[in-house]
Write a structure and sequence with these properties.
Number of helices: 4
GO molecular function, one term: oxidoreductase activity
Largest sheet: 5 strands, parallel
Helix content: 25-40%
Organism: Streptomyces haneummycinicus
Distance between the termini: 30 Å
CATH architecture of the largest domain: 3-Layer(aba) Sandwich
Strand order of the largest sheet: 3-2-1-4-5
Protein name: Gfo/Idh/MocA-like oxidoreductase N-terminal domain-containing protein
Strand content: 15-25%
CATH class of the largest domain: Alpha Beta
Family: Belongs to the Gfo/Idh/MocA family.
Keywords: Oxidoreductase
Length: 143
């Protein structure tokens, strides 16, 4: 992982719909210390849009292409449909990458995700209480 004061963190963004293109990509690129390295989207029009808006960005058609380059990245932001959050976050964690998920994952008490416990570290934001809680449990953010 890079991220020293002179080397920005390289961020991979999974999903380039509304959340990815309007919120995450512009905020990542505007934040000192971060660089938008890769955008993942399978939609050809969104791939063209990402290249037009961020000329230096790499574009991948699948998350697997991104995870294959895990050693070249420092952080993954998941801004894909809610149903994909748990499997994508799990794959990113298994690849050894820190993960930020756009919204709370759809994990509920009766069906908890199998998060890799040795690699799991999460900061969970609760919109209702506007609080952030750090956790290193085997099922982050589940209540």
């Amino acid at each position: 992982m890079t991220g020293s004061s002179s080397t920005p963190l390289r961020v991979g963004l999974v999903g380039y719909g509304l959340a990815g293109s309007v919120f995450h990509a512009p905020l990542i690129s505007a934040t000192e210390g971060l660089v938008l390295d890769t955008v993942v989207t399978s939609h050809p029009e969104r791939q063209q849009q990402a290249r037009a808006e961020f000329p230096d960005v790499r574009v991948a058609g699948t998350p697997d292409e991104l995870f294959a380059r895990a050693g070249e990245l420092d952080l993954i932001v998941i801004a894909s449909p809610n149903r994909t959050h748990v499997p994508l976050a799990t794959a990113a964690l298994e690849a050894g990458l820190p993960v930020v998920v756009d919204k709370p994952s759809p994990v509920r008490r009766p069906r908890r995700a199998n998060w890799p416990p040795s690699r799991t570290s999460a900061a969970c934001f609760s919109p209702s209480s506007r609080t952030v809680a750090g956790t290193t449990t085997s099922s982050p953010c589940a209540s």
